[in-house]
Amino acid sequence: MDYFARDCYHLGIESNFNCKRFFKFARVCLADDEDESEDRTMQICMRDKEVGHIYDLYQTRNNIHQKACQHKVVSAIDTM
């Protein structure tokens, strides 16, 4: 996720997402399945108060995709 900060810096795009804060509050937890199968899945879990910060993550990703990945010059180079 630190690549969002790098890409935003070099593209001149403002980002409110803080990857250090994300890693501070992220935890890997066992999935709370109803059936007690032997293959328990793992999930990345966040505190409920971090929901706004996660929205910032997806907003930043969307901004990078629209302004850099779908730029007309990038599309022309891909076509060649």
UniProtKB/TrEMBL annotation:
One of its GO terms (molecular function) is dGTPase activity. GO terms for cellular component: nucleus. InterPro entries: dGTPase-like. Signal peptide: none annotated. GO terms for biological process: defense response to virus; dGTP catabolic process; regulation of innate immune response. This is Uncharacterized protein. It comes from the Eukaryota.
